[in-house]
Amino acid sequence: MKEKKWSYQPTKFMLPTSHYDKQKADMAVLFIEQLKHTKGKWAGKPFILLPWEEQIIRDLFGVVKEDGTRQFHEAYIECSKKSGKSELAAAVALLLLYLDNEPSAEIYGAAGDRNQASLVFDVALQFVENCPALMKRSKVSRASKQIYNKTNNGIYKVVSAEVGTKAGVNASGVIFDEVFNQPDERLYQILTRGSSDARSQGLIFSITTAGFDTNSFCYTVLHSKARKILDGQATNPSFYPVIYSLDDDDNWQKEENWYKANPSLGVTVPIERFREAYQIALENPAEENYFKVFRLNMWTNAEISWIPDNVFMKGNQPVDADSLRGRKCYAGLDLSSTTDITALVLLFPPENREDSYVILPYFWLPEDTIQTRFRHSGAPYPAWVTAGYLKSTSGNVIDYACIREEINRLGEIYHIQEIAADPWNATQLLTELDQDGFTVISVRQNYAMLSPPTKEFYKLLLEGRIRHGGNPVLRWMASNVVVETDTAGNIKPSKKRSKEKIDGIVAGIMALDRAVRNQGTPDSIYDERDLLLL
Fold this sequence. Notes:
Radius of gyration: 27 Å
Number of helices: 19
Helix content: 25-40%
Mean pLDDT: 87
Strand content: 15-25%
Structural class: alpha/beta
Low-confidence stretches: 525-534
């Protein structure tokens, strides 16, 4: 609900020659507030705009030029995660489709990928389906992600990131979600530059959270442009900038500053959730980074190791391999390219609630590449080979036959229930292991498959419940891990962003996934409702 003391004042960026048309603004607000929320405790209730949301809507749809058309043709809205960005963007898309009276309106929903763009579209579709008046005027298609307005031949549809297919668009509106995820400016340029020249008041509505790359298109072009206009260093009468973030000299650890980054905090987002995330951030430098970026909307260029050494070494208790003979275990196999490290991790589930998981890691590397890798990375590959932590296979490419033989040998010692592996680059070996009698499970390296076990892996490390004996190769790999995060808060290890090899950790996460799915773990991340939705 809106605060009683709040009253609208037109934006300071309104030109002297423009004016505020209260009737148009009221119509836009009234239209949105007839829509009904679709999620959580708000589901079924009217979408009553919060003051910050109403400010944006009244500015965009009520500030008009002398000829009555909108002054602002491009809006950049930047605020933290879970502030209601998707709902606001969906409402703007429907305003452009139904309220503008634009003949043959074309509204495009875009993002870093089609799935992300579909998030806003799906909210808009539910808005329409829950409003009989709009449904009477509409034809919808979930499969093709399109909403068709029969009264003006208008259409709102999702477009994917393949740039070459977007030439020739005649957009009256573009909804660009999570621009920080755009790898470059190509899709944005095609959808925005010149595509709406034939429209009297086209609107480009970009909404995003901060990101990790200050060299990205979003930061260097859109964020910087908005920041300069807000700071009075530049002017652009058709560009509408909004950034909710901490100031440079604000202490990110002070709760009163959090409200600057999330204007919905305490209304749509309980402050308790922020406090919980803050406590986690204090325990892990990587989580601190995510808290700053996604909760406080602070841009950063730092990729911080996901597993601090003090956390990993909580599992430094000795491991007696002989005592594990005959016990059930789950294997994670991360196969390399032919010249790189291959990792196998055997993970033994606890036999009682007080026990820990136990890990036995195995690593292979082509013998002829060891000295080169030592000179390149400084990692002590030769010493690891001498100590038996790393096995070399003859030649300059990995010998998969040797690895197959070793897995079969281990299968005679330990009761390997399943072998989890990424099928990419591993088809032949996995087929051979299947023929050898092992149960082989393909684990795709996507958020849906890896996020729950990745979170569970860190949780168990933090509790000291993964015992690994301080294996130096695995310890080194743990120090290299950087995770990437999607806008829903899912995470997975990123080989691309990690500074060095992380194969053993990836193999351990895959093994844990199979163990938890088959054994069950009390109080695991798999029991959380939002992750079950995956």
